[in-house]
Write a structure and sequence with these properties.
Layout lengths: L11 H11 L10 E5 L5 H11 L6 E4 L14 H11 L7 E4 L5 H14 L6 E5 L5 H11 L4 E5 L5 H8 L2 H21 L9 H13 L7
Helix pairs in contact: 1-7, 1-8, 2-3, 4-5, 7-8
InterPro entries: Cell_Envelope_Assoc, DUF218, Rossmann-like_a/b/a_fold
Pfam families: DUF218
GO cellular component, one term: plasma membrane
């Protein structure tokens, strides 16, 4: 495996297959709230700010505490740093709520829902804003835990290569792609998410990347 910020040509087709699979290809619709899911990727907050400024929603909830992979980057918590970044990009502070306790995608949604209910804010629709390769898992998790919520998924509109460059670590991106692909099926089996289509070409690409050694994010 490489440690550079470029995708090895021998596995490029498989990486592209997984990348495209996780993109839900939704057309973002005007919604009651934008929900930004915490991670190592500050681009989530950038995307949320962009969509807010386009008038896609009047309120943003950033949700996320820390994972071992984010504590050094976001020492005050993912959601807190996301809010600070969005404010730097021009989003008013009073248009942002912070949910600072979630440590997984399920908690992102259950905690966000509870926070909105505590604030007596009624929402019927949301834009789920995540890393590009987290869209399908975010969608499947939300529909399990908050089925009545009408949702579309969004991420920064970056190509695979541009995203790898933005992260600066191709191994990390590929391992996360492989890990999220496994979670689509495994989490549905465990009842954490609704089932999603799982085409044969996606499974074949997933298996080949595991055989190549991209296993660090498997559960």
């Amino acid at each position: 495996m490489t440690t550079t910020a470029s995708i090895p040509e021998a596995i490029r087709a498989d990486v592209e297959t997984l990348w495209d699979y996780h993109n839900m290809h939704h057309v973002v619709r005007s919604s009651d709230v934008g929900i930004g899911l915490g991670s190592h990727d500050l681009g989530v907050a950038t995307c949320a700010a962009d969509l807010y400024q386009q008038g896609m929603f009047p309120l943003i909830v950033f949700t996320g505490a820390n994972a071992p992979t984010t504590v050094s980057r976001f020492p005050r918590g993912e959601a807190v740093h996301y809010k600070e970044h969005a404010i730097e990009l021009g989003v008013p502070g009073d248009a942002i709520l912070v949910e600072p306790h979630a440590t997984n995608t399920g908690e992102n949604f259950t905690n966000t829902r509870a926070l909105l209910e505590q604030r007596e804010i009624t929402v019927a629709s949301a834009v789920l804003i995540s890393r590009p390769y987290q869209q399908r898992r975010a969608f499947a998790t939300c529909k399990k835990l908050w089925p009545e919520l009408e949702v579309t998924c969004a991420s920064l509109p970056l190509s695979l290569d541009d995203y790898v460059v933005s992260i600066g670590d191709v191994d990390r991106v590929i391992n996360m792609l492989v890990g999220d692909t496994q979670r689509i099926t495994e989490y549905a089996k465990k009842g954490y998410a609704v089932e999603q289509p799982y085409p044969d070409d996606v499974n074949a690409a997933f298996q080949r990347l595991i055989a190549t050694g991209y296993t660090s994010r498997l559960v």
